[in-house]
Structure formats: C-alpha cells, structure tokens
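Exercise: predict the structure of this protein bound to iron/sulfur cluster.
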Amino acid sequence: MKKLASSAALSERADRIARRSRADNWKKPPRRIETSECITCDSCLRGCPEEFGAVFDRGLDVVIVPELCSGCPACVLECPVDCIYVDEDWTPTDDAMWNHIELTAESAA
Ligand code: SF4
Ligand code: SF4
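Solution:
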C-alpha cells in the first residue's frame, strides 16, 4: 500500500507547484516517460509517492513533470515495459500543463 505523505511534505509539493521549480536539495535528475514505449497503464502514477505527485495521465499520454519529480525512482520499479528514463536534459513544463496541475491541486485540497 502507498505510504501517506505528511502535511509538511504535501505543503512542500504545493510550494514547488507555486514556484514551478524543483527542490534545491534534490541531487538526482528527474525521470521521463518514453511515450512511444508507454502502454498508459498508470502503474507509475500509482507508484509515485504522494509527496511528489509528479505523474499525470493526460488521456492520450502519461507524463512526469520534472519540476515535481525527485528522481527517487519508485515509478521505475512499477513500470511493466521499462520505459522510464533518467532525464538529464529536461525542459521546463509549459503553462498549459501548470494550469492543469494547479487545478488538480486545488480540487485535491
Ligand atoms: S522518479 Fe519518483 S518522484 Fe519521479 S515520477 Fe518516479 S516515482 Fe515520482
Ligand atoms: S508504468 Fe510505464 S507503461 Fe505504465 S503508464 Fe507508467 S510509463 Fe507508461
């Protein structure tokens, strides 16, 4: 069963969403999902710790938001097709996706 996050950890996630940036003390690069290999099973979404909440199912694809991903990498252990890779060259998430994330965060609050 997934471990529940503390309120402090959840508030740190909310802060990352508000700042749209990764935590300064994260040493590992984020992960990314290779869309061409992904079977959109959502196992990684369920496996990503609540305090990070970095995986989103957008309907047509499943994505990791690098600013929310600590690189932990719990999702990698869950993926049945092994299509989650280290993303050293990640690019910032676009505004449309941030708007979606903010709406999701508000509805969960
Ligand atoms: S590496 Fe960790 S934080 Fe990043 S998406 Fe996977 S489970 Fe979530
Ligand atoms: S676990 Fe793997 S195959 Fe399933 S949605 Fe995530 S990346 Fe795609």
